[in-house]
Amino acid sequence: MKLSSSACSIARIPSLFASLCRPICSTSLSLSPSSLKPTTPLFLRPPTFSTSLSELNKWHHWAKNLASSVGSSFVHLDNGPDSTLLCRELRWLLEDSLEDHSLISQLGSQNYHMDVRLRASLDELYVLWRQRIEERRPFQYIVGCEHWRDLVLSVQEGVLIPRPETELIVDLVKDVVLDSRELKEGLWADLGTGSGAIAIGIGRILWSQGRVIATDLSPVAVAVATYNVLRYDLKDMIEVRKGSWFEPLKDVEGKLAGVVSNPPYIPSDDISRLQAEVGQHEPRLALDGGVSGMDDLLHLSNGAVSMLKPGGFFVFETNGEKQCQFLVDYMENNNPGKFCNVNIVSDFAGIQRFVTGFINDKCH
Amino acid sequence: MSSLILKRSFNRSLLLSQNPCTETLLVPSLFSSLSELQVKSLHSSGLRNFPSLDQNYKFLLSGFSSFLLKTVERPSRSHFRVSKRYLSSRWRERYRVLTSRICALQRNNSAFSSVLPSSVTLPCESNKDQLHSRRFRMFSTKAAVELSTSHGLTVDRIVANNWTILDESESDWKSHAAAISQSIQVIKKRLQWKKLKLRLDLLSAELNKPDLWGDPVHAGKISREHGSLMAKMKQVTAFEQELLEHIDMIKLAREEDDTELESESLNALLRMRRNSKEKELQALLAGEQDSCSCYMEVQAGAGGTESMDWAKMVMQMYKLWAQRQGYKVTVVDEMPGEIAGIKRATIKVDGEYAFGYAKAEVGVHRLVRISPFDSAKRRHTSFAAVAVIPILGDGSTHVQINESDLRIERFRAGGAGGQHVNTTESAVRIVHIPTGITATCQNERSQHMNKASAMAVLQSRLDRLEMARQAQMNAQHTHSLTEISWGNQIRTYVLHPYRMVKDLRTNYEVSDPDTVLGGAIDGFILSYLSASVDKDEDYQ
């Protein structure tokens, strides 16, 4: 209830956004906020469409057959979804489109003339599911949201869909924040925030004095992240700034308690071989990390030294074992003595995914 | 003030309760005066009158005390209603008649008590509370007093009289009374009355130990169990008491030729009779965890697609059953078969008494039919196993899980992960390394939520394991262990060559498998629950 009511405030975003940013970062705002209005996720749209249960049933039957026809062909093609997964997505699409979820169990029953209230027209549902299967448009863009941790974040084309692996960054922050009042009440930065996922995740575990600045180069990302921050009522805690990496953070140099980032880390040559949902639909800006995939990670690790205050904490997500090892070596060789407790942390699939560590207290 | 004084005299009577009651002749006169006093206090609130009255009756109270004591021991919610009406209305006159009559029959305690405590406690709420707490304490040490009417009629005697039980619509008090009495016996049997009383005595003794709270965890457990058993017992006793009171009323009304009172009491009996069936049912679900929500798990037996399809049918049967019951059903984990059906699945059934009912389904379910997956149209027998795990409430003690004992894995993970992959598959599996117990959840839309759900399943599984371990140490509870452990074949569903569902434990059978598979399993559940509880003949 709370979420949907705050979602209504979407119209107010531009003005709120402007006032939020002005006092701190008047220079970094090249974006004219009014030009970008984020799309409302399907599940938050009003149920203004209606159809009969039999029509919906027909659509569902069609959609299910379409999903089943995929079999495991996408899996073989590019490790895409199989029909089991697509059928589950279909159920979620229904959940998000229907006003009354209990109807899902009644699909296929005899009560055919019953009126059904929908958040999208039946025609649109046909188009959406065709896009899902035939164009491989990501499910999260279809429904306009991604369930991530305990959040439901708005996403749309132009914004990277937050990955399940990245949820762990918040857990890693939670672990260090538990022991340290300074970190709990400090200023954090989420660089390349995209939908704002990590920033919001962290914003919800910090104490009320804590602050997060989320930056992104993409105007779409800035608009969507702002929308999500408002939806979770965190506008007093999280500030979204437009700009590349540390650029919009010059005013807080050396003051950050923590820096987190899931920067683009896929080597440029791999982009063309990506799963269709990723390669053909998600923003290249958020994926392509240069020839080795390490361009931005190296930039971030260099910047962290001057941006973080002594005892400050960082987490960076990487492409896997190779990048993790490389980054750890790089930090030790390029900035000897600056970092301490540098660690590699694996994701739940057992892949070395994150590099974490602190800025050494003594070196400053 | 008035209540204070009354309380004082009341307390004194308790203090003096050791004295033998020999002055029986005094009682009637005392009682009628006392009741007059109460009536006065209600209507005139004659404060100044009390001290002297209190003095005057001091000596009388000593001889009177044993009745008072018994009075106090009795749960008496129902009398408040009855007596209040008497006191506050035109029934006052009758009240005096009734009380004196009862006092004349002083050997009978219950009818006597039905009037007295209310008259003592009515004037003030706080006094009533005091009475309640006192009664509670007394009750805990001395629970067993056989209740009877003024004519010495008890529930057992009513049943022994073998009065004909007529249809509800017949206005015959004996028929109602006999039906209610039978129910009370069934309820007592189901609650294992005798064991319940022994257990209560044991707990009371434990509670009275001065060093009890040295171990607060243990003390909390004891006092919680005591409280819950006490509540169960009080409910039944109150019901019994109410029955006997109404019988008394009817007899009185007949003697007084008061048709209004008679029909009122008769109606009350009818209400009780209708209520009693529900109470019988409630008594079936008196186990410690019965009121909990639960997880239900179905696993396909050997036999490939045919048995996986059967497992799915069984799971569907439970989903429909739970929905009918008004429970909230969530799929926690589902492992689909390659061609059809499920290899296994877990659902969460949320609602009061979900575990109490669902536990009757634990075991192996057998299906006989012509398999739709067999091109040769042969008859197949398949099996599906059902497990049910209670979800313990916040009040219960859970097994402590160390984070370091867990291994959390991404389920069905493959490839590079991270930004390379966009998948809505975010299932996790949690392995509890010391026990090897695992839990998986893949139904939630985020990995975080899947992990949380899987943790909840893991917690319940570990709790169940711990309960089983404790039950093994405690021979008294081995009975409940067999109830919740993975049982043997319990039910057969035959779709061909004939149609029938039969429970092998109770021989309960139904000739329409479709409705059963559509969730109509209440008959099976209730017959099993009654059979498993009612087999213990010795109830008192």
UniProtKB/TrEMBL annotation, chain A:
Q: Does the UniProt entry include the keyword Lipid metabolism?
A: no
Q: Which InterPro entries match?
A: DNA_methylase_N6_adenine_CS (IPR002052), HemK-like (IPR004556), RF_glutamine_MTase_cyano (IPR052663), SAM-dependent_MTases_sf (IPR029063), Small_mtfrase_dom (IPR007848)
Q: Which UniProt keywords apply?
A: Methyltransferase, S-adenosyl-L-methionine, Transferase
Pfam families the UniProt entry points to: MTS
Check the record and name the PROSITE patterns matching this protein. Answer: N6_MTASE
Q: Which residues form a coiled coil?
A: none
Domain Methyltransferase small intervals: 184-266
In Swiss-Prot or TrEMBL terms, this protein is called Methyltransferase small domain-containing protein
Origin species, per record, is: Hevea brasiliensis (Para rubber tree)
Automatic annotation (TrEMBL), chain B:
Among SUPFAM superfamilies, the record links this protein to: Release factor
Keyword presence, Protein biosynthesis: yes
**Coiled-coil zones:** none
Give the UniProt keywords, A-Z. Answer: Protein biosynthesis
Span of domain Prokaryotic-type class I peptide chain release factors: 412-428
Recorded hits in InterPro entries, A to Z, give: PCRF, Pep_chain_release_fac_I, Pep_chain_release_fac_I_sf, PrfB
Pfam (any one)? PCRF
> Which family is it part of?
Belongs to the prokaryotic/mitochondrial release factor family.
Query: What's the protein name?
Result: Prokaryotic-type class I peptide chain release factors domain-containing protein
Origin organism is Hevea brasiliensis (Para rubber tree)
